Amino acid sequence: MLSNHLQNGMETAKLIWSRLPNSEVEADGIAAGDFSRIKKDDGSTVESLDYEVIENYAYRQEQAKRGKVYMAYSVVVKWLMALLIGIGTALAAVFINLSVENFAGWKYSWTFNLIQKSYFAGFLVYTLINLALVLSSVYIVTQFSPEAAGSGIPEIKGYLNGIDTHGILLFRTLVGKIFGSIGSVGGGLALGKEGPLVHIGACIASMLGQARSTKYHLRTRWLQIFTSERDRRDLVTCGCAAGVAAAFRAPVGGVLFALEEVTSWWRSQLMWRVFFTSAIVGVVVRTAMAWCKSGKCGHFGSGGFIIWDISGGQEDYSFQELLPMAVIGVIGGLLGALFNQLTFHIAYWRRNYLHKRGNRVKVIEACIVSLITSLISFGLPLFRKCTPCPEADANSGIECPRRPGMYGNYVNFYCSDKEYNDLATIFFNTQDDAIRNLFSAKTIHEFSAQSLLTFLVMFYSLAVVTFGTAVPAGQFVPGIMIGSTYGRLVGMFVVNFYQKLNIEEGTYALLGAASFLGGSMRMTVSLCVIMVEISNNLKFLPLIMLVLLISKAVGDAFNEGLYEEQARLRGIPLLESRPKYQMRNMTAKEASGNQQVVYFPRVVKVVDVLSILRSNNHNGFPVIDHSRSGETLVIGLILRSHLLVLLQSKVDFQHSPLPFNSRDGPVPISRHNLTEFVKPVSSKGISIDDIHLTPDDLEMYIDLVPFLNPSPYVVPEDMSLTKVYTLFRQLGLRHLLVVPRASRVIGMISRKDLLIEDHEDTTTIELQSTSVRDHQNDRRMPRRKDAEQPLLDGLIV
Amino acid sequence: MLSNHLQNGMETAKLIWSRLPNSEVEADGIAAGDFSRIKKDDGSTVESLDYEVIENYAYRQEQAKRGKVYMAYSVVVKWLMALLIGIGTALAAVFINLSVENFAGWKYSWTFNLIQKSYFAGFLVYTLINLALVLSSVYIVTQFSPEAAGSGIPEIKGYLNGIDTHGILLFRTLVGKIFGSIGSVGGGLALGKEGPLVHIGACIASMLGQARSTKYHLRTRWLQIFTSERDRRDLVTCGCAAGVAAAFRAPVGGVLFALEEVTSWWRSQLMWRVFFTSAIVGVVVRTAMAWCKSGKCGHFGSGGFIIWDISGGQEDYSFQELLPMAVIGVIGGLLGALFNQLTFHIAYWRRNYLHKRGNRVKVIEACIVSLITSLISFGLPLFRKCTPCPEADANSGIECPRRPGMYGNYVNFYCSDKEYNDLATIFFNTQDDAIRNLFSAKTIHEFSAQSLLTFLVMFYSLAVVTFGTAVPAGQFVPGIMIGSTYGRLVGMFVVNFYQKLNIEEGTYALLGAASFLGGSMRMTVSLCVIMVEISNNLKFLPLIMLVLLISKAVGDAFNEGLYEEQARLRGIPLLESRPKYQMRNMTAKEASGNQQVVYFPRVVKVVDVLSILRSNNHNGFPVIDHSRSGETLVIGLILRSHLLVLLQSKVDFQHSPLPFNSRDGPVPISRHNLTEFVKPVSSKGISIDDIHLTPDDLEMYIDLVPFLNPSPYVVPEDMSLTKVYTLFRQLGLRHLLVVPRASRVIGMISRKDLLIEDHEDTTTIELQSTSVRDHQNDRRMPRRKDAEQPLLDGLIV
């Protein structure tokens, strides 16, 4: 047992030792206790984040120091950050696109040239280039940045939901993601670069906000205003939006994606900044593309960057078409849900069996997938007969067959002049071009149903198998490929069925793409806007909306969205927006369980701190003190991470078991820089094993008052868990104290108590000043006089 | 003094009488005390709303009764509601547009015909038709539905922020808004129909959700699931989005408008439904227009419904253009802020001086404004010289002069053949057509700078004067008019300055429109999407974004947004999204002020209830009780409105001062229908004057336990007001109890305590079931066994 001396030699506080449940590490599960650090089987860990601004004495002191100038400065820095995030993400996107387009361009032009002489030589070169690119990608990922594998969206979603997966926002992850994406996308695998770009945006944002590196011993003082998890979260939100805006050239879609898909909270001030970031991305990407148009960037310029302009397509739609469109929605929901289910099972198997055997297995796996992909995409079109070109239509401006090395429809592959291979048009092509071909208008009957079906089955299987290999991989482009294929199939039937109507197959391909993404990712508004922005056609907005609604509803009947499934698989415990049904019948007390609470007294012995921290893995501890009348009071919450900082720095140790008194010397907190208490992003922070204390140190005391959060959010014990959940999630909390019912009410706060006028805004006040308002101002304006004094000095007897 | 018998004859609770500040009514101010009912000078009142679901015993009992079938039924009804809101709002929009276009069409064709013979006869007919339309509008509004005046957006914004302005969502308001809009817009005033359409959508939503009318004695049982303010708020949100979607044919813009501008909270489940409503609106409006295209709807069909297609315009933009575009942003910010300031002062003057003189003054005012508008719009073009038509360009398809009775550019007014009047083209035209002309591409030098400047000054003045007359009035279309005029002016200078570039004046007009709306309304994302959707051109998205950002930033330097200014003027106390700076140094206790709390004991005498309700205007009262050990405990919060229902129904009166015991008879709450406790929307609910009690009744008792909210949100007394504000606003609260610091902590809730698996979802659990998760489920799953028992029976000794 520990003995704790309380101030003034009052009675020893009885520390209630917690009967902790097993705090061991479980594979993919959630460790009991707090999420102080959960190791997973692959060595990665996740940690809860606290988005509440901890208003301890240090924070208040820092705030007090900040004048108007500082506030203006901080606003300027925040906007500058948004600007830099936008520029950085846009440049990364341009670099990736430029590289991918050039690699793919060289690959296809070499192959086409060789095919004229020998199929086998062509196949060999094609396969080897793909293999080399994929190999470089998987090598970078496995050797250098394991966190760069996959799309990264589930992890970013987790981060913004309040769960930090270690290593997800580091510089090495950024580098691995950029170069890995180039390899995996350039290597022709059935994956896209859009998910990784979102991750890249988030990494850039996080690094800019950090503006220092513990590893590389870099520090800038001027950016230390981003000291709370909340500021960092805001930056990462901007980064996400920038990523989507850059990936799809869809600025509004980016804002909405950040809003709908990744964040669990929202502030309208932030929207304003996210919006700015997206606009900057739009301008920078456009400028870069305009610069490249003159041919300075090799193959990049004419192709690349997914904008599938279908504005030349169908002008209008009629009522009869609503039924086939609904059918597309249903197919999308079914295939999307199936995709989620299959990828979940395969990814589960990979994590638990295959990838446990080490990096070599991951490399071999990626290479095998690459070989299979090359074989199928080169081999299948060979079995397909050539189709004679349709009669030339001068107005459409579409050449058949297209000239070698150019982008466009009607790839002739091995066919003779005036012929083309419809399977090669979609299979033996970059994915961006394939989608452009599928979406293309005025090309009725370009594809045969047989080719489309073959492609659908093969590509769907490839996408499922590729998902989860150790390379950066997005699911947007494969999803659009799959969806537009069956969409075009349905479109072909509709064209045959309603021969009188002016129907374009490309429109149905667009709706198919929307339906598959809706059925798999379950986004609505953001996906809809993204689809509209990439297809550059507003006419079908209501149709896209309806198709999305149907496919999401069908998909929801089977399983969760792709990102939620993957987050669960990776042990990222997301809090959903809706509380569970059974929470209605539970109370806060029941939810907090049998676990007993570990208290700290206000002044605590160092040895006791150490042994409490060692003996459990809680992350926050209530601190109690005694009032003048001897009554016990909860005076705040102290975080494990802050205690570790205090133990490591040792400057706050004192010999006396009496609480700190300002007459004794300088205020303790002034010995610290506020940033010391902030955990570096995505790192593990200080561990208890890093702390080395002498026996003398152990006998000293710490007064915790300056370092604790004096007013954590509390809920009464019998509050319904639904309400607790809402509170917890909406405010982005990490801890919530469950307290007994109050014995009295000190006051009631209603709306009028929160309406305080800004005094700067004198003109408007003048008009409004009624007696009540003035009275209210008089009553409320006195600022806390003791703002410079420790908050809880009143407790010192 | 009142004496209160507590249960078991325990000691009398000391009721602390509040020293209430003056609860009198102040003109436009905020009454002290709670917002139980604030009368304003014009006789309207506002009231706070509580969006927290009050989980009293009645609610829990209702929940317990609801099985799976009921849940499914409620989901179906909610979606059905969304569908009906969409259809209803779309039909209202079509009706308004159809009427306006026809009235305006007849008006202009008659006038044009008469002009050929006599200017004066033409002017007379024009003026009289305008006057008649405006008169009908102002008559409907003043006599029938005073709440229909203005745009309604500030009130709807207030409603969704938690403030109910009485009468704002009634049937008569809906009717007045629809017919009033037709008159005011058809009468050619400088106002639009878009704001009113948002209000109309909200009214339709609210009425559908209510599905009963106390006034007309209608009741439907099947829709009584919308029993909480929160459900109704969700419906109104859908209605808002539907209104914008219908007004601008901008479904995504509607969703974003509801999200950004009007709601202060957001749930992603709701987004899904809002999205559906918008999509339905899009489909219905499109269908109606397709039906009208064949000429079945008179003048409606070719014109009407603002979609200003500028897709034929400028293809690209160059860097040199960014400077003039930024200039447009700055002008927009300045003119927008000036507009807000002028309208605020004029509206203030109107409310406090002019409109106090009764309805006759309002009618005369509107008529005078109508006469001035007619005079200016007919007279000014007469002073303008005719311009010869430009050389015909066969490709552009634009006729000069346009044929009489048609829509288009180059109005010839009084000019001869091959000539047109540029001022008449924008002034003597419906506003939709004028905007179409200003946005039009391939019409360089159509307008002279002199005409545009004249129009800008005159129309700006008209818009300022018209704003605030007693007719339904939106500010979107006037804003677009003003903005596109100076935008086109800037465009003309740019065309002259950069003669080499391919620049369209219409593009600058579009940017100008965006900048003025941004400078006045201060929306960003939603406005941007609306502008893109109405101009049907995605290419200028980043430019619109940047212009909006600049104009909003410039405007923010001067004053608040238009809706916030107007809400303030109307005494609607909106809680802004950002807490005020000085709140950082205040605590919850300071905010709740000196006002002392009025408690109720658990079992209270009827006469005491009555006298407490009479003696103050608080809206919620804490209820206290004594535990077994004699300690006082706060057991919940009872609302004034619920107490009034209890007093009126009398069924819960009991003779004994002992608390209710289930052995004595039926559970009290089962004598009530849950809907009895819900205040009908936008009505004043039961007043204390409606209650008539006999002397016998007064001597009886009520046990409050079944009717109180057992777990209102609480904050500790020294929590920073910033945190309190966030909590209050994010959760949409009406009351927050300030309690003393807790003496102990019962438990801590962290993320893991809130992760409860759904048991239905067996397949995924199977994969995930680690020992911990199972263990957690075991521990947490026991539902409250006494769910059928009153919650606080444990307190009965």
TrEMBL record, chains A, B:
Compartments, as annotated in UniProt? Membrane
Q: Which UniProt keywords apply?
A: CBS domain, Chloride, Chloride channel, Ion channel, Ion transport, Membrane, Repeat, Transmembrane, Transmembrane helix, Transport, Voltage-gated channel
Q: Which SUPFAM superfamilies match?
A: CBS-domain pair, Clc chloride channel
Q: Which InterPro entries match?
A: CBS_dom, CBS_dom_sf, Cl-channel/antiporter, Cl-channel_core, Cl_channel_pln, ClC
Database matches in SMART domains: CBS
The way it spans or sits in the membrane comes to: Multi-pass membrane protein
Q: Which family does it belong to?
A: Belongs to the chloride channel (TC 2.A.49) family.
The name under which this protein is listed is Chloride channel protein
Q: What is the lineage of its organism?
A: Eukaryota, Viridiplantae, Streptophyta, Embryophyta, Tracheophyta
